[in-house]
Design goal:
The complex is a heterotrimer of chains A (about 300), B (about 260) and C (about 240). By secondary structure, chain A is α/β, with parallel strands linked by helices. Helices cover about 25% and strands about 15% of the residues of chain A. In chain A, strand 8 and strand 9 form a beta hairpin. The two termini of chain A are about 20 Å apart. In chain A, about 50% of the residues are buried. By secondary structure, chain B is of the alpha/beta class. Chain B has two domains: about 170 residues, 3-Layer(aba) Sandwich (Rossmann fold); about 70 residues, no CATH class. Chain B has ten helices and ten strands. The longest helix of chain B has 18 residues. By secondary structure, chain C is an alpha/beta fold. The longest helix of chain C is centred in the last third of the chain and has 16 residues. Classes of the chains: A alpha/beta (about 300), B alpha/beta (about 260), C alpha/beta (about 240). At the A-B interface, helix 5 of A face helix 2, helix 4 and helix 5 of B. Chain A: One of its GO terms (molecular function) is metal ion binding. Chain A: Keywords: 4Fe-4S, Iron, Iron-sulfur, Lyase, Metal-binding, S-adenosyl-L-methionine.
Chain lengths: ~300, ~260, ~240
Amino acid sequence: MRDETITGETVPVPESGYNFAYLDEGAKRMIRRAILKAVAVPGYQVPFASREMPMPYGWGTGGIQVTASILKPEDTLKVIDQGSDDTTNAVSIRRFFAKTAGVATTEKTEEANIIQTRHRIPEKPLSEDQIIVLQVPIPEPLRWLEPREVETRRMHALSDYGVMHVKLYEDISRHGRITTNYDYPVMVNGRHIMAPSPTPKFDNPKMGNMPALQLFGAGREKRIYAIPPHTEVKSLDFEDHPFSIQAWDEPCALCGAEEVFMDEVILDDQGGSMFVCSDSDFCQRRRDAGHKGPAVEGDDT
Amino acid sequence: MSELLRVENLTKSYGRQRGCTDVSFELWPGEVLAIVGESGSGKTTLLNCCAGRLAPTGGSVVYETRHKGLIDIHGMSEPERRFLMRTDWAFVHQNPRDGLRMNVSAGANVGERLMAVGARNYGNIRNAALDWLSRTEVDPDRIDDLPTTFSGGMQQRLQIARNLVSGPRLVFMDEPTGGLDVSVQARLLDMLRDLVDRLGLSAVVVTHDLAVARMLSTRLMVMQQGRVVETGLTDRVLDDPQHAYTQLLVSSVLQP
Amino acid sequence: MNEPRLDADGEMLCLNGVTKTFNLHNQGERTIPVVTGVNLKLNAGECMALMGSSGSGKSTLIRMIYGNYGCAAGEILIREEDGSWTDLAQADPREVIRLRRHRLGYVSQFLRVIPRVATIDVVSEPMRLAGASDSESRNRAAELLTRLNLPEALWDLSPTTFSGGEQQRVNIARGFVHPYPALLLDEPTASLDKVNRQVVLDLILEARDRGAAILGIFHDHEAREAVCNRFLDVEEFKAAA
């Protein structure tokens, strides 16, 4: 399955019968307008007329529509799912755009100028000429406490955000610490509270002052929001329970990296497991450069 | 001393239906005003208009704010009004479920107002919650329990704690003892009276129970069909009622 | 304690043409006249007994002065601390409350309290409302309850479950806890034993001696003779029905 890692010389021809990047130009224009508004009001959820996509909701239809709307023929696309380039979801979306738009695709973070992702931000810092598109299932951070959309919108309009700390308070009172590890709420540009999509809170600090544009698309909930480059993003916390990111006691078993987000991989039925980088591209490149983790030390592969 | 709240010619109509008509009164610091009348007499509509929860059709509700003097609360911007409602004001609903978040702990319910106005120290918020739970006679050991596990009386006391934690000056109460057993009512009334007294709170209490009005209020307003038919010192209105409707109301109370 | 001291001959209370009728709207618009044209003047240091048969309007008159009943006509003037007069018949609720807190005390026949409030707090409340500190008020309350022979074991209990005599003593202690310049008494010695009746009479005499103007209803002839130095027959003002 290497047909999609196509380089400059072998640009695939888009499938005939589809408009460039599947969506019609009218829909793209509508979505681009929503994106412009989202960029203009950082963290604000802009409603948009989400289209039917040839895959079910929950598979990243919001992110795909955003990507389709900003994609140009000369772009290079990277798609990751939980940090990995080779899971079903990532592969499907990458092939989808290779087929319908004929754009180049890559697994290398720095080669891509558009990165669509589900649940992770690459370990390698992004640059000003890159755009990261995040898939979002539930865009409304206030939803868990306030089921009425009219009311949550009013709360955003009025910066009426007391309930967000109620959630963190509950965490501490139950568990002695803030246990929210994913979709950890952030304050964007000192104005809007935003759900960072189910990325681990480990990635929250990367969102702040990121040189790249961050776009968020929620297909089922029909919302688009954005963090423009170099925007302040602050994770909510208490003075006596400050925000902190996850840390692991051991380095990546394969590449030896520390201070990266790791996945636990089960090795056998006896409970044996190892921790490896969640960002597959980052891990592979380190191994290519000769770094070795404890699991492969002494191996000469 | 001057007024804390001034209501002038307040009218609320729902289409052709009148909620309340041409109501005026003043409330001074430390005063408790009771509004009585049968259901449908417009007392809850009046309360909601006074408390900024419902826009009146006519008239004004002017409040003496801490920093800006007298302001018509219906002319305020929404954020200003919300801020006022969760700092200087309190609203105690008849049904505690309407005034509590049932899916978060008692402590979070009490702490929410503090967090909403910027409290960001968990330890301080928790201590304030513990303090208010004990002041409203809720066992502080229940701080991490959900209100759904509380009895009706405890839920009502929790609602009061949640409201008073921000140190309000004006409390609106809509049938605060409405759904409670008689034995629980007495305890709640005594607690309310003591808190109002010790904190120097002003209050507007809507009730259909004349005994509640007598116990909590110094002044009484009797409403019938959306209009105020009699007003005055609570004990005088109840002991020497002048209007036919008030006489009927007073003489209809069963004596135990 | 700073007790207000008035000139022995200073007028405290003055009623001019006070009239009361009850209009019963729901009982065939009946009008029940009670008293007409009551005139009286009461000086500091005087204790006046209202006389008359049952139903002659004695209690009604007391309640009108306390602001508990409205006034159909006439003036009910009470002397303010600065020497000016306020008409209770026209006073708005806030003024009535202020006068009740500082100038005008009332011992009714029945104790009306909130369940659960401790006796000591029931008794000390008027003094606290008049501006005294918690501890000062409680000390004074304790002093009165001791004089009235109410066992200390009962002080932390609510008086709602007390006997009639005990409740009446709580009521009296509450009425005497603050040194009001004017005091209204509605049968203060009813349902009391001999010993406690004497304590109450002593309290009344002490109040009189400090210069309080007292207006009371005393069915008990001996008590009346012991404390009163003026008498007024309310029958004189009985309205023609």
